[in-house]
């Protein structure tokens, strides 16, 4: 079987955006699948992680091309980098930044990484002409990548599958800061066209799959690779270590946690942020750890007593499943998910007995205090629920469903 993957984010890009398909690729190659990847060369990445290219199997053929970047325009207006995970204006933002965000929201559809599409299409055609491909798969965000798949389907009739790691028109940052009605209508049209045209759409969440336009859909959760954790073992210290990994994005409210910690004043609690750039001012001492290579970040997750997950607060967030949730589960460290106790993240955490979901500071304080007391008694806090259905080696079976090969 031969699969062509189109993805903007790929190693050496780092962060959560690359982990899903890096896991799938490794599991698929173990099952004898030939993988071709069309991706970017020096794209606008949130991070780089030089440890990740070594995880790409040697059999994978990677075709890279430089995207047309909008970062120079951003720099011209005094912005350090392109937005990632948020398009929310703050009162303290400059006029130039507010104008840029307005232009991005209303005139660059579906997203600012669309400048890569022409070169991605050219490289995809090169692969299709060189070999017999069973199907092409496009993964987003950025959802502009799906437009390349749509064009390939229209002109050449390829077998085409999409992968939605987030919703498109209902993505959280557009719910918080929506574009104008005309732009939103166009975005919804593109979303509907993509889903109805694709031969199959993989959706990361059941709630999101149900909310998307009609089409052939299959839920494919993010997961974890047990090989990533095989060398890591929990090591206890004299501190009760609470950790949050990754960025705070639009709509994530950390205040219930901060209020709980302020009220508890537990002497041996240590609160750390891993790779988190912007964090609200707080009277709680915070240890800031810079962005780490993926394997070192996983080791930090294993060596903790509590991990913090925050669901973005917006209408319709019941289907939101942050990528980190699944590696949090695999670390076997208890999870405190700050969210109303409803939705898909809540259901998964309960099903796997992986932690506690709440957005009330008093109840959060009680949960932390309960874990802390157990820690002080020397109890084993590691979670033990069944997470085998999220093992990537079990997940990839749906990607192996065979369809007729495309011959140009």
Could you explain how this protein is built, in words?
- This protein has 408 residues and is α/β, with parallel strands linked by helices.
- The protein folds into 2 domains: 2-68 and 112-223 and 392-400, Glycogen Phosphorylase B (Rossmann fold, 3-Layer(aba) Sandwich), CATH 3.40.50.2000; 226-386, Glycogen Phosphorylase B (Rossmann fold), CATH 3.40.50.2000.
- The protein is built from 14 helices and 13 strands.
- It has helices at 16-30, 71-76, 95-107, 117-130, 145-156, 172-176, 181-197, 206-211, 255-264, 294-302, 324-331, 344-351, 361-377, 392-395; strands spanning 2-6, 34-40, 61-65, 135-140, 160-164, 200-203, 217-219, 240-245, 269-274, 287-289, 306-310, 335-338, 355-358.
- The protein has a 7-stranded parallel β-sheet, with helices on both faces. Strands 10-9-8-11-12-13 form a 6-stranded parallel β-sheet, with helices on both faces.
- The radius of gyration is 21 Å and the shape is globular.
Number of domains: 2
**Helix and strand run:** EHEEHHHEHEHHEHEEHEEHEHEHEHH
Q: Catalogue the unreliable spans.
A: 404-408
The number of distinct helices, counting runs of at least 4 residues, comes to: 14
Annotated CATH homologous superfamily of the largest domain: Glycogen Phosphorylase B
Task: Please identify the top-level CATH class of the largest domain.
Answer: Alpha Beta
């Amino acid at each position: 079987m031969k699969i062509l993957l189109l993805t903007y984010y790929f190693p050496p890009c780092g962060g959560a955006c690359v982990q899903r398909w890096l896991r799938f690729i490794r599991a698929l190659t173990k099952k004898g699948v030939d993988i071709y990847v069309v991706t970017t060369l020096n794209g606008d990445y949130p991070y780089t992680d030089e440890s990740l290219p070594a995880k790409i199997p040697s059999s994978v053929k990677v075709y890279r091309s430089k995207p047309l970047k909008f970062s120079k325009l951003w720099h011209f207006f005094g912005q350090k980098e392109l937005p990632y995970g948020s398009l929310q204006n703050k009162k303290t933002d400059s006029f130039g930044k507010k104008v840029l965000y307005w232009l991005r929201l209303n005139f660059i559809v579906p997203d600012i990484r669309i400048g890569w599409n022409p070169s991605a299409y050219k490289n995809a055609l090169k692969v299709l002409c060189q070999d017999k491909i069973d199907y092409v798969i496009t993964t987003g965000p950025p959802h502009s990548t799906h437009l390349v798949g749509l064009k390939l389907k229209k002109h050449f009739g390829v077998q085409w599958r999409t992968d939605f790691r987030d919703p498109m028109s209902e993505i959280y940052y557009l719910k918080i800061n929506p574009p104008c009605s005309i732009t939103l209508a166009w975005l919804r049209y593109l979303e509907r066209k993509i889903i109805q045209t694709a031969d199959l759409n993989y959706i990361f969440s059941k709630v999101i799959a149900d909310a998307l336009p009609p089409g052939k859909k299959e839920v494919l959760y993010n997961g974890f690779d047990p090989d990533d954790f095989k060398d890591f073992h929990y090591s206890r210290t004299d501190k009760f270590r609470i950790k949050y990994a990754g960025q705070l994005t639009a709509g994530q409210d950390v205040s219930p946690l901060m209020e709980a910690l302020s009220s508890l004043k537990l002497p041996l609690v240590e609160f750390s942020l891993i790779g988190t750039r912007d964090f609200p001012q707080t009277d709680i001492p915070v240890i800031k750890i810079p962005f780490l290579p993926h394997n070192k970040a996983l080791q930090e997750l294993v060596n903790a007593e509590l991990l913090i997950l925050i669901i973005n607060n917006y209408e319709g967030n019941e289907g939101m499943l942050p990528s980190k949730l699944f590696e949090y589960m695999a670390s076997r460290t208890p999870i405190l998910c700050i969210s109303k106790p409803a939705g898909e993240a809540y259901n998964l955490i309960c099903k796997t007995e992986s932690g506690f979901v709440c957005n009330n500071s008093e109840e959060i304080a009680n949960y932390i205090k309960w874990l802390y007391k157990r820690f002080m008694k020397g109890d084993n806090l590691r979670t033990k629920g069944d997470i085998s259905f999220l093992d990537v080696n079990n997940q990839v079976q749906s990607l192996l469903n065979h369809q007729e090969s495309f011959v140009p």
